[in-house]
Amino acid sequence: METLSRAELDALQVQRLRRSVVRSMQAPIYRDGAFAGKLDPETITSIDDIRRLPFTTKDDLRANGPFAYLTVPLSEIVRIHSSSGTTGTAVSIFHTSDDLANWTELVARCMAAVGLSKEDVFQNIAGYGLFTGGLGFHYGSELLGMTTIPAGPGNSNRHIQLMQTFGTTVAHLMPSYALSLMRNFEALGVDPKTDTKLHTLFLGAEPHSEETRLKIEEFYGAKAYNSYGLTEMNGPGLSFECPARDGMHIWEDQFVVELIDPDGDQPVAEGEVGELVYTTLARVGMPIFRYRSRDLAAFIAGPCGCGRSHRRITRLMGRVDDMIIYKGVNIYPIQIEKVLSGYSGITDNFLIVLENDQKGERITVEIDTEDRQLTTECAESDRLRKSLIEALRSEILVTVRIEFRQVAGDDALPRMKPKRIDDRRLK
Ligand SMILES: [Zn+2]
Predict the structure, then answer these.
(1) Same domain, 21 and 143
(2) Residue 244 CA, ligand 1 centroid: distance in Å
(3) Inter-axis angle of helices 97-113 and 132-144, to 10 degrees?
(4) For the purposes of burial, counting CB atoms within 10 Å of the CB of 166, is it exposed (0-12), middle (13-18) or buried (19 or more)?
(5) From ligand 1's centre to the CA of 114, what distance in Å?
(6) 278 inside domain
(7) Which domain holds residue 390?
(8) Model confidence pLDDT, tens digit, residues 362-415
């Protein structure tokens, strides 16, 4: 499956897309709504015919609710996962037992691709529960036969203890957590290179730079691989780095991937950055067509050194909507804008600064103001700061630091589309 020729993959995609369109007619949303009269599966002859289908957005999934997308009765559904609902209703994805088997096979395939086997001990440092990184990795690891430690997030020193006790060879964790765990290793006087058996790390759930990867590999003495998925497309197992580590393969036997102009509906030119748009090909319970992920990346042209034929994408270039993940919570700049707009005396120009150093991970919102008094220590600025911290906490669920920056007169900052995020955590 991993080394099918392009022509074989294309043919498989067409066959599976037809099957999925036929099956989707069991779901109210497709039968009565989006697809009504739009697509006859018999007329699908090339995978490009997928462009005749309408897009699906997160708002669609929210507005219609998950039941509208189900092709089977709820009694056939065996598990539900949800994406974070920080900015509104959470999006839920429903899986049949066949869906879980397909998903698990993909995760195991990713793990096998980087040389792991039943001889390995896998420590999963990801949240279990509705978040897909826990159970998704867990079942893939077990299918491959690895000795699996469902460590979950939390107590850092305990993770190091588990690694030493059970001889962990592989761990899955977020890159920012891999960085912060370094301080615990140092404090305990444990060197992961000599005092653990770690040889492989999966870095998931956060975009990160090549420099960060190198820093992590150097410290842990392990190979670090990028993992990328989204709840709507199962979660982990959607795409993964191979040993060639030149982009991430998308498993095209189960997904169609398109790159679409984020502001439009047409494909971007080869090599250009676009919004990743996905279609499930194997999902039974809740098929989704042309899902606009809001994630930005580009295709990498040409064959991969590893011999796998599935298309590759670059590292994620960010979100169309600039989401921030801070301590596991999704934050959108638009939420901060919303809070600031309710105050007088400050502007809605702000910069979110994220840092992660000896003082730990923290978030500061620097707000432009024309009121010189606010930038000094006084009762007025103190009162406003406290009020903003409280209002932001109830909106974004985290406690921020507030700093006021004066912008009047010659110090005025450019007003055109100010940069809103300065993430210094992974640099
Ligand atoms: Zn490859």
Answers:
(1) yes
(2) 5
(3) 70
(4) middle
(5) 10
(6) yes
(7) 325-423
(8) 999 999 888 888 888 899 999 999 999 999 999 888 999 999 988 754 444 433
